[in-house]
UniProtKB/TrEMBL annotation:
<dbReference type="InterPro" id="IPR003594">
    <property type="entry name" value="HATPase_dom"/>
</dbReference>
<feature type="coiled-coil region">
    <location>
        <begin position="55"/>
        <end position="96"/>
    </location>
</feature>
<keyword id="KW-0418">Kinase</keyword>
<dbReference type="InterPro" id="IPR036097">
    <property type="entry name" value="HisK_dim/P_sf"/>
</dbReference>
<dbReference type="InterPro" id="IPR036890">
    <property type="entry name" value="HATPase_C_sf"/>
</dbReference>
<dbReference type="InterPro" id="IPR005467">
    <property type="entry name" value="His_kinase_dom"/>
</dbReference>
<keyword id="KW-0808">Transferase</keyword>
<protein>
    <recommendedName>
        <fullName>histidine kinase</fullName>
        <ecNumber>2.7.13.3</ecNumber>
    </recommendedName>
</protein>
<keyword id="KW-0175">Coiled coil</keyword>
<feature type="domain" description="Histidine kinase">
    <location>
        <begin position="105"/>
        <end position="339"/>
    </location>
</feature>
<dbReference type="GO" id="GO:0000155">
    <property type="term" value="F:phosphorelay sensor kinase activity"/>
</dbReference>
<dbReference type="InterPro" id="IPR004358">
    <property type="entry name" value="Sig_transdc_His_kin-like_C"/>
</dbReference>
<dbReference type="Pfam" id="PF02518">
    <property type="entry name" value="HATPase_c"/>
</dbReference>
Amino acid sequence: MSFNLFAAEDQAIEQAQGLGKRLAEAAPDLVPEFDSLLDSFRRSIREQRRLVRVSDRLQAQIASANQELERRRQEAETALTRLRDAQEAIVQAEKLASLGALVAGVAHEINTPVGIAVSCASHLADQTVALRRRSEEGQISRGDFDRYLTTATDTTDLILANCQRAAQLITAFKQVAVDRASAERRTVRLGAYISEVLTSLQPKLRPAGHTVTVACPPDLVVDSFPGALSQLLTNLVMNALTHAYPDGRPGTLTVTVTVGQPDEETVRLVVADDGCGIPAEHHAAIFEPFFTTRRGSGGSGLGLHIVHNLVAGVLKGTITVASVPGAGTAFTIDFPRRTPDEAA
């Protein structure tokens, strides 16, 4: 439709041609100048037509480019959505794997006291049968009875102690597992809860000879999400076991809790180790998803990323890291004593 733009110009040229004929009769000496002017006007119109055609092509190319750009944008948004979904699925799988490792470790740990209790009960049952047989045969002596009482006392003490140990492990694991699964908000005595979490981690700590010390105000109560606390504490401890002691030597981890920095409503949780430390060039990347220096050797690159998300998203706090190669690493987490409501 671009030709419609020059209808007036075409009409003006036709009129000019007619005027040129009349001018040739009236003033022939002006005809060359008039023809030159008319020719310039025609060239101008042709150039304008060319520019309009170029503009039409450019507009068509721009429209096509915009369509392609929109298509690529939609593809990128779709790919980003899929990537986020996949990342979330991997993070959830990592959390489930952590819980599965906890289950396996606690199950293995419970086997020891239960096995001892069963062995003691079996031994006591055998001694009871033997004593009953001697009693029925009328061959029981005071020495036999005293030895039986000694055996019964020792075995019942062992049975009771190991059953209590198993009960403690089951109680600690049950609460930690429920918190991990439900993400329920509740008040907890923080020091006791940290001890429960660390008890559930003993199957991972004991074989390598690692020890953990806890310093926490005994009456400190927080209104928060213990499942998040359990997950981040587990991930920090397991991260230390994976990365801080590559030479296999036993180490010491410390968990320190204080209140009052910067105010009485803020809890500071510091998890530190005396391991090999983190190189300075890695500090900016350790909380990024899938960043690990031990890929294929026990590192998934998600442990600290999950910790960061839990601290910032669930606990509404902050986390920082301080580390010097060869001098250990300390993660400092500051979070509200009472987690703010979402509406706030």
